[in-house]
Amino acid sequence: MRGLFGNDWNWIAAGAVSAALLLGLSFLTHFPFLVSAIISVLVFAGLVFVLAPRQLFEGLDLRSLSGSKVAFARELLAQAQPAADRLAAAARSISDKDMQAKVKNLSDIAADVISRVEAKPESAPAVRRFLTYYVPQAAEVAEGYATLANRRTPSQVRLASVGAVITKLQDAFVHYADSLADSELGTLDVYLRLIQESLKEDIGR
Fold this sequence. Notes:
Layout: H1 9-28, H2 33-50, H3 67-93, H4 97-119, H5 128-149, H6 156-203
């Protein structure tokens, strides 16, 4: 899932490109300044649109969903996404390969759960505690491990203690990811029962 951006980086990037284009057209190709300005404005407008930060639930038909469920999911994801981004950054900053892999696994699970909740907002209650508690806490712990490990003389005892917590967090992350899958399978079970009942009515089996 692409990150949920909250800044104006697209305007900055579009402005920089269009300004460079204006200078290039005016001074290198000797285009008339007015023509160069019009082209640059059109390029700026296009880049602002193309580079615009994606919005939550982009492409999802929200008309078929309860407004309260969407609002609840939006609130949870707004809290979880920054923490998930921190978790991913912490994984990249850890040099120990084994611990880096464990933290990256946490980051991958967090990203997967967030993506699935965005695709299915009504599933958010099943992972509320995961999104609002475990993901932010995992980010704190992973950042703490990275800070400890980067010391000139890190305490091996403290590193082992924090590492043990990260290992246990993996169990919690897997549990919540599976609980989300279980809730989806519950819907599948309902569909299967309905199909079986329809088959029994239609063809007697």
